[in-house]
Write a structure and sequence with these properties.
β7 and β8 form a beta hairpin. This protein is flat. About 45% of the residues are buried. It has about 775 residues and is an alpha/beta fold. The chain is built from 32 helices and 23 strands. The N terminus and C terminus are likely disordered. The longest helix has about 50 residues. The strands form 5 sheets. A 7-stranded parallel beta sheet has the order 3-4-2-5-14-1-15, sandwiched between helices. InterPro entries: Helicase_ATP-bd (IPR014001), Helicase_C-like (IPR001650), P-loop_NTPase (IPR027417), SecA (IPR000185), SecA_Actinobact-type (IPR026389), SecA_CS (IPR020937), SecA_DEAD (IPR011115), SecA_motor_DEAD (IPR014018). Its EC number is 7.4.2.8. This is Protein translocase subunit SecA.
Length: about 775
């Protein structure tokens, strides 16, 4: 047994240790009782079924009635394992269910159960708008038979449509849309303007993706403020003509870039200034950001340009990351690089991380095909345990060992040869690539050798359902940037399964990864597209020692002269270990980033909650009017009670919202500058808290002081409106998600550039 296989065996044994996942035995004991009720409930007419469903109060009743509703509404009888999954969700667990095992129906039964157990309304949080609408419409017949209402929300939904959807028993909505609606509701000045009901229960689809990969992503509500484009465009024009090697160098890991002395001299000559003079810090920062955008962010890899806008690509899914943008001026720098107008930065009015938003639900559970590998993180950040649901039919997919090549060119040649061989036999092939550029290059290579293929990437993700549905057809070759969260099953023989037996006889769908991802879960999700519900299938990953993952995280563990064949195929167990080691290191890095980011977010979230409670009292009671009566009884006794309440509420809410926005901006600046304290051997987190806590302590007194000042300086009548006192709110708001800055903060880059300047000053 090789080193790689021994490691895999040890890891599987570790996962099987008692206590690492939930014991399903107590739930399995309920299955006979559920089945025993099947004959009885099948005899109900639809009205009787609905009546019984509205009275259900136990897991057995919920599952028995849910199974019958699915049989009638969808012509599908849920398997026992789907009921185990539903009961796991009802128990507040994350259910790991293999791809193709029917998670959508499982979630519907669980959502019904949560409502019946008094935990409604239920939000089913999805990864995108498409799945939210599809699943709500698909499951609606089941919910109707069970006596429940169901709605869905997407980006295009109007406030009234959102309000109606959230008023349903079950609402399907992407986690970002739900978060944005929450933020907007936090700024209303009239209770009737809210769209959400109080949060109660969340069922999180693709739980590992949302709760781990996206957990630290801030959702932002901003007031539109025009951006300053000139400095950004000037800097972009300066670096556009610079050449790699002569004017700048890129680090081996591809995550940092530095001016050479010649490059710095060229930029300074064009500007006619010394960039390192104290008064030129802003220009220095803009030039460094522009250089990062020019040298390190690549079109069709990190982003695409479509309809005159820069759209970021989600590296975990290979699709457009809707409404996401880079921070620290990097977004504007990329837009300038592409010759586009810079979009407004906007004043941040409210923000909440995905992790914090999900944490607001008193009850949460989830489902995914790959949860065990992040079980510790789910427990650490959310207090959630994993329940591994066995497949209905044992998986017979053949997972081949990685094929590792010395160079990327040798890997690409072998990859095309393998696809060509499978296609000649008629076996369908699904290839998962790491980015858009690679998918298009592979497609071009396949076309050059006479292998037709369809490509699914961030440029055509609207067509994804139809493309994926036919990926199992005889002779099909599908090239995709990732498969996580695609949400469509691949059936052997195509969507109509016309050639099912023919394809099965060839070994079923063959999944090929063109490289290892930073996460084993993403690789496993790709593998899981083959071998659905006991189908035959196979998988293999092609890797090269020049792949970014290996170069960044395993350079020291790769032997200098590994054993290999004449075609470049490596046959060295030490290299197998190095590739797995690289992936584990990458996962560890991401975990530490998640933990560290959350440590900074905790204090902000605590402050947000405290201020939100105060805002709720201002919005729903006369506490502001009582304060004015106490502080200024003469003027406040002169006013009608209703007018005083309306005036006091408007003024207090305005100042609370304005000061919170200013506080967020201040904390952002503190977060940027706090790393300088590390140079003095101080803990950045402690220093952040030392600045953030006093700033918030002063917030409430300042809100009251400004409220009193406005009340003192303003005359009121029955027709008074806030704008008469210049209490003007943003005329428009917009939402976005802050994408991870791949190069650290603006300050990190500035410090690095200063260090490089000092190190190279002797050679200029």
């Amino acid at each position: 047994m090789g080193v790689s296989q021994r490691l895999k065996t040890r890891f599987r044994r570790f996962l099987q240790r008692p206590g690492t996942t939930v014991d399903l035995a107590p739930l399995e004991k309920l299955l006979p009782a559920i089945e025993a009720r099947e004959e009885e409930v099948s005899a109900f007419d639809d009205a009787e079924l609905t009546d019984a469903a509205t009275a259900a109060s136990s897991y057995e009743e919920i599952c028995a009635l849910g199974r019958e509703a699915a049989r009638r509404g969808l012509d599908q009888r849920p398997y026992d394992v789907q009921l185990l999954g539903a009961m796991s969700l009802l128990s507040g667990k994350v259910a790991e269910m293999a791809t193709g095992e029917g998670k959508t129906l499982t979630a519907a039964i669980a959502a019904y159960g949560h409502v019946r157990l008094g935990n409604g309304p239920v939000h089913v949080l999805t990864v995108n708008d498409y799945l939210a609408r599809r699943d709500a419409v698909w499951m609606e017949p089941v919910y109707t038979l069970l006596g429940l209402t169901v709605g869905w929300v997407n980006e295009a939904s109007t406030p009234n449509e959102r309000r109606a959807a959230y008023a349903c028993d079950v609402t399907y909505v992407s986690v970002s849309e739900a978060g944005f609606d929450f933020l907007r509701d936090q700024l209303v000045t009239d209770i009737d303007d809210r769209v959400q009901q109080p949060l109660r229960t969340a069922i999180v689809d693709e739980a590992d993706s949302i709760l781990i990969d996206e957990a630290r992503v801030p959702m932002v509500l901003a007031g539109s403020v025009p951006g300053e484009q000139d400095p950004v465009h000037t800097a972009a024009a300066l670096v556009r003509g610079l050449r790699k090697g002569r004017h700048y160098t890129v680090a081996e890991d591809g995550r940092s870039v530095a001016f050479t002395s010649a490059g710095l001299a060229a930029v300074e000559a064009k500007l006619g200034i010394d960039l390192y003079d104290e008064e030129n810090v802003e220009q220095l920062s803009a030039v460094n950001v522009a250089l990062h955008a020019h040298a390190l962010l690549h079109r069709d890899v990190d982003y695409i340009v479509r309809d005159g806008t820069v759209e970021l690509i989600d590296e975990m899914r290979g699709r457009v990351a809707q409404r996401r943008r880079w921070p620290d001026g990097l977004q504007a720098a990329v837009e300038a690089k592409e010759g586009l107008d810079a979009t407004a930065e906007g004043e941040v009015l409210g923000t909440i991380a995905v992790q914090a938003y999900v944490g607001l639900y008193p009850k949460a559970c989830g489902m995914t095909a790959t949860a065990v590998l992040v079980g510790d993180q789910l427990r650490e950040f959310f207090g959630l345990e994993v329940a591994v649901i066995p497949p209905n039919t044992p998986c017979v997919r053949v997972d081949e060992p990685d094929r590792i090549y010395a160079t990327r060119a040798e890997k690409d040649e072998a990859l095309i040869d393998e696809i060509k061989r499978c296609h000649a036999d008629g076996r369908p092939v699904l290839v998962g690539t790491l980015d858009v550029k690679e998918s298009e290059q592979l497609a071009a290579g396949l076309n050059a050798v006479g292998v037709p293929c369809v490509v699914l990437n961030a440029k055509n993700d609207d067509e994804e359902a139809a493309i994926i549905a036919e990926a199992g057809a005889h002779g099909a070759v599908t090239v995709s940037t990732q498969m996580a969260g695609r949400g469509v099953d691949i059936r052997l023989g195509g969507s109509d399964q016309a050639d099912r037996e023919r394809v099965a006889g060839l070994g079923g769908l063959f999944v090929i990864g063109s490289g290892r991802n930073d996460s084993r879960r993403v690789d496993d999700q790709l593998r899981g597209r083959a071998g659905r519900q006991g189908d035959p299938g196979g998988s293999v990953f092609f890797v090269s020692l020049e792949d970014d993952l290996v170069v960044r995280h395993a350079g020291d563990t790769v032997p200098p002269s590994p054993r290999m064949n004449a075609d470049g195929l490596v046959t060295d167990a030490q290299v197998d270990y190095a590739v797995e080691h690289a992936q584990r290191v990458a996962e560890g890095v991401n975990h530490e980033i998640h933990r560290n980011t959350w440590r900074y977010s905790v204090v902000i979230e605590q402050q947000r909650k405290a201020l939100a409670e105060r805002r709720e009292r201002l919005l729903t009671s006369d506490v502001a009017a009582l304060m004015l009566l106490d502080k200024m009884p003469e003027k406040a006794g002169e006013m009608d009670e209703d007018l005083l309440a309306r005036v006091a509420r408007s003024i207090a809410l305005y100042h609370l919202d304005r000061l919170w926005a200013a506080h967020l901006a201040e904390l952002s600046e503190v977060r940027e500058g706090v790393h300088l304290r590390a140079l003095g051997r101080l803990d950045p987190l402690d220093e952040f808290h030392r600045a953030a806590v006093p700033a918030f302590t002063n917030l409430v007194p300042e809100i009251e002081a400004r409220t009193l000042a406005t009340f003192t300086d303003t005359e009121f009548d029955e027709d008074w409106e806030p704008d008469e006192a210049e209490l003007v709110r943003p005329s428009a708001t917009w939402t976005y998600l802050v994408h991870d800055n791949p190069f650290g903060s603006e300050l990190d880059r500035l410090i690095a550039s200063v260090g490089r300047r000092l190190a190279g000053s002797g050679s200029r």
